[in-house]
Amino acid sequence: MSGQIDMRVVNLRKSFGRRSVLSGLTLGFPKGKITVVLGSSGCGKSVMLKHLVGLLRPDRGEVWFGSTRVDTLPERELGIVRRQIGFLFQQSALFDSLTVRENIAFPLREHGMTEQRLIDDKVERVLGLVGLTETAEQMPSELSGGQRKRIALARAVVLEPRVVLYDEPTTGLDPIRAEVINELILKFSDTLGITSIVVTHDLVSAFRIADHMVLLNDGKVLIEGTPADLRDSKIPYAMQFLKGEISPEELARIRSSGDHGSIGTT
Ligand SMILES: Nc1ncnc2c1ncn2[C@@H]1O[C@H](COP(=O)(O)OP(=O)(O)O)[C@@H](O)[C@H]1O
Ligand SMILES: [Mg+2]
Q1: What is the C-alpha to C-alpha distance for residues 132 and 154, in angstroms, rounded to an integer?
Q2: How does pLDDT run across 129-145, given as a tens digit for each residue?
């Protein structure tokens, strides 16, 4: 894709014990665009995101945020990068003992903002963006799952980050709630000019929002291109993934016996 690249990973390798998860991952995230990274469960999507913010360090390879190399940055300097990257974690956990307002204010305080009026203004703004202004004084336990996800989204963008990482933002939501989240990701991208990186296995959501698409397999990039590039791909794994089909090898493994433990759907 043409245009400026905001973040990139180069030949990223990561193993846990003997299990190789990323095995030479190279890909770029275009500035101001929505990149959707697809791949089956357990293929390393969350592991990749954690490398982008220095929560994990690669065994080999490089992570770049603009012209800053992230993977070799000392822990004390990672704050500068993290300040500019919003992260919606897969479990989007809110702090149960804090109100919605204090949950959203948390990253602001953590990054040294103390002026109450400024904090209130920023909280109001992002609550408005996700359409939940009226919930400011409520506790997370009083909200529905879809609302909690929207509050977590508001918290992820409150520092006005340059890049937002979304880990499975629609997983576990019904189609209508999922569509609300899709719309919010599109809105943040448009109105805030954010570079968005969305990892998911939700194909409906992926094709709704993606400018740029990546399919991972075996710890590497199998396809990187436009949504049409993926949709029209004749690569067998890509066709299987899009159709939600089990591979013949996997099917054979499932059918052969019950004592294998992993069937590749961790
Ligand atoms: N901190 C860790 N220690 C050991 N294994 C891990 C760790 N994080 C992830 N893994 C393993 O790496 C693989 C990829 O995980 P993950 O990136 O979470 O997959 P997904 O694509 O579903 O997000 C899984 O097999 C997982 O068990
Ligand atoms: Mg994951």
Answers
A1: 9
A2: 999 999 999 999 999 98
